[in-house]
Fold these 2 entries.
Entry 1:
Amino acid sequence: MSQEKVDRYKKEKANRKKLMRKQKVMGIVRKGVLTLVALALIGWLGYSAYDMYESGKDRVVAEVNYDAVTDYLNSLTAETDSE
């Protein structure tokens, strides 16, 4: 082995614990990010499926009779016109 290789090996051996810890932390971070992305994707798919299911249902329609309000407004405008 050349002296360069020996020096590189010694330097690597001296920092081996630090490198192993760094690799382990990066692996945990990578798994965490992938888990968050997977959960977001599953949530989005679930919401989309629920939204499509709900859009296919018949909606209840309520009719409102505004005759009393219209009559009241007409009586107000009639009073202001007569004054």
Note: The two ends are 112 Å apart (CA to CA).
Entry 2:
Amino acid sequence: MIDPNTETLIRLADAAKSLPCRRAGKKPHVSCVYRWTTSGCRGVVLEAIQVGGTRCTSKEALARFFRRLTRGDAADVPAVRSVAQRQRAAERAMRELDAAGI
């Protein structure tokens, strides 16, 4: 979690500008960095906070994000199940409860 008192806050646009070039020598677009804060990348989500009307992250949060991506810490993030998967799991649990007489 970002601590605004001890970490260096930066706007997502500035974070995108500070990153190294990717494919074809282009820097990541700010929308890419925004997606990292909402959907994540390979199961790892970039920490962000809202400062007034501006979404921000920190240099330290970027370092943690890249470190987790490098180590492959996506296993720490619970998998997102589809609606159908949740329904099947609920039905399976109901059958198990019925079989147990509960």
Note: The two ends are 41 Å apart (CA to CA).
